[in-house]
Design the sequence.
């Protein structure tokens, strides 16, 4: 059984991940409306990834016989000033999530909840990748804010579909 304090915070994190899904969906829609299909596709995929993270956490709670509580989520930011603003928001979000994931690992350690600590290790690695990806994308969109074709070309070249990570935790419903 997972430590009660960890379970409570993991349920909060499920809400954070679902809110991130909605936020990245709003970013994708913004780029779709600007006829930037590659940026839109990138953020649609990011939205699905965030939903997947939430479902991994749900599955972990189910596997440990812990209660799953789906919290309410705030509406996403849906209006952006330019092509750079959604990526700036994404960088801030990924840095915040990194702090949240580190906090979950810290709780698991403090509670001597070794299974939960092990579960969080994959998310630690994932956040390093997410921050790096979004930081690079921010540099490109900032540098090319007036040339969306260069942004689209970068995304096509650098953000191609990757393979599924066989070490990723199982998602609920999959």
Sequence:
């Amino acid at each position: 059984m997972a430590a009660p304090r960890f379970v409570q915070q993991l349920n909060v994190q499920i809400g954070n991940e679902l809110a991130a899904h909605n936020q990245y969906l709003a970013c994708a829609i913004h780029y779709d409306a600007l006829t930037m299909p590659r940026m839109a596709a990138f953020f649609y995929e990011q939205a699905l990834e965030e939903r997947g993270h939430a479902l991994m956490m749900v599955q972990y709670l189910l596997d440990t016989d812990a209660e799953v509580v789906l919290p309410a989520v705030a509406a996403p930011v849906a209006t952006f000033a330019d092509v750079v603003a959604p990526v700036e928001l994404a960088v801030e979000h990924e840095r915040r999530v990194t702090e949240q994931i580190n906090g979950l690992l810290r709780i698991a350690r403090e509670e001597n909840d070794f299974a939960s600590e092990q579960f969080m290790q994959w998310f630690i690695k994932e956040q390093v990748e997410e921050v790096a990806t979004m930081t690079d994308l921010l540099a490109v969109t900032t540098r090319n804010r007036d040339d969306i074709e260069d942004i689209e070309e970068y995304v096509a070249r650098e953000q191609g579909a990757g393979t599924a990570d066989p070490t990723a935790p199982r998602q609920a419903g999959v």
